[in-house]
Amino acid sequence: MKKVLFAVLAALMIAMNGFADAAASTGLDRIVAIVGNEIILASDVNEQELMLHLQYPETRKDPQLRKRILENMINQKIILTKAKIDTVKVDEKSVDDQAAARYSSLRAGFPSVSAMESRFGMPVNRLKQHIREDIRDQQMIEAFRRKNFHEVTVSYDETMAFYNQEKGALPEAPETVSVSQIIKMPLVSEAARQAALDKIKAVQQQLEAGGSFATLAREYSDDPGSREKGGDLGFTRKGELVPSFEEAASVLKPGQISGIVETRFGYHIIQLIDKEGDRIHTRHILALFDRSKTDIPATIALLKSIRKDVLSGKATFAEMAKKYSDDPASATNGGLITSGSGNPDLEVATLRPDLRKIIDGLKSKGDISQPEKIESDKSAPFYALFMLNSRTPAHVLTPEHDFAQIQELALNHKSQELFNAWIEKLKKEVVVKVMSDI
């Protein structure tokens, strides 16, 4: 557990530096360590300790916690110092994007900008600058680490040696499931479909009469993200757009305008601007469906019909997902749900409570749920079918069944040992002075 906890310290250090500044700005602070030209304040350590206590309450019982926090912060400062000496470059646009996302997430936790400024003890512009600098430093650290450790591998013999040495301490493999889904947003009523169709047909007539695509997009499109840009969606790769839109756009020639194309969002008219390899540059005009006028019974009936056809053998679940699902990410994989890393085996304990309850009701491979209403924090409610592909109970790791997982643990262990040796070597090149006992 301690290894897991301290693996997150680098990220926590960046996330919490603003809090440390607030503490330093509201009272006396002291320097606890100097690393090259960088300093570490007591408030830095205090805030990291607070964050760990909040996320992992069991750390309150660890008498060595503050010492390990300081050691980790010193290691991070050493790497940063070396990265700056070696002029490691970072992607400045990525830094800007991450800084903006970090600030937005932070801002959402306060009722007003002034409340946020009061908590951090600094004006918002300084806070934004501080966030950007922190993220840039962390990217430099990660780039420098990748440069030195990107070729680390473990052989079969190394993996087995690690297993034989550590098998008594290896974590238990948690219960996992593989699940596929078909997502349907509530079908819109016929009246709403007709209203959107009438609107897009009127736009189509103006285009056919010689109207400017960009001008008409600015005037009529219901897509707020592209409307002011004349409908321009920029370059996208295969799989990034909903299938029906992508299919219609991919057959166009540069400059050519499509007919009316239906997606779950509404009716589109698409113009292909350019092609570069597997990327297409498009713009569109959207007549959005009015989703305040939905037909829930028809949505449920469609999903029940899909379920019946799959269970009777008329179609496979994967075929139906590709044809009907409104989630393009899983639809292209036949409805298969994967983790952020692309792993199809999902830990049951990490599933959302509502999804876990549904999956617990599926006992055998191939079982399909009834249509279920799913509430989402990120979108309007939708309806879904879920099919159980496999279920693996929790078990002790063994090479026969879990070699890939053991190999990953062995690789992490080897990387950590090499990292520790590397840090000791860097300490001889960077002046480190611990000023105070924390």
Overview of this protein structure:
With 438 residues, the protein is α+β, with helices and mostly antiparallel strands. The chain folds into three domains: 2-153 and 407-434, Orthogonal Bundle (Triger factor/SurA peptide-binding fold), CATH 1.10.4030; 176-187 and 295-392, Chitinase A, domain 3; 190-288, Chitinase A, domain 3 (Roll), CATH 3.10.50.40. It is built from 16 helices and eleven strands. The strands form three sheets. A four-stranded antiparallel β-sheet has the order 8-3-10-9, with helices on both faces. A four-stranded antiparallel β-sheet has the order 4-7-6-5, sandwiched between helices. Mean pLDDT is 86; it is low at 1-27.
In short:
This protein is α+β, with helices and mostly antiparallel strands. The protein has helices spanning about 1-5, 10-25, 40-55, 65-85, 90-105, 115-120, 125-150, 155-165, 190-210, 215-220, 245-250, 295-310, 315-325, 330, 355-360, 400-425; strands at about 30-35, 40, 175-185, 230-235, 255-260, 265-275, 280-290, 345, 370-375, 380-390, 430-435.
Give me the side-by-side strand order of the main sheet. 8-3-10-9
CATH architect. name of the largest domain: Orthogonal Bundle
Return the domain count: 3
How is the biggest beta sheet arranged? Answer: 4 strands, antiparallel
Query: Which blocks of ≥5 consecutive residues have pLDDT under 50?
Result: 1-27
How many strands appear in the DSSP assignment? 11
Strand content: 15-25%
Could you say which structural class the secondary elements and strand pairing correspond to? alpha+beta
The best one-word shape is globular
pLDDT averaged over residues: 86
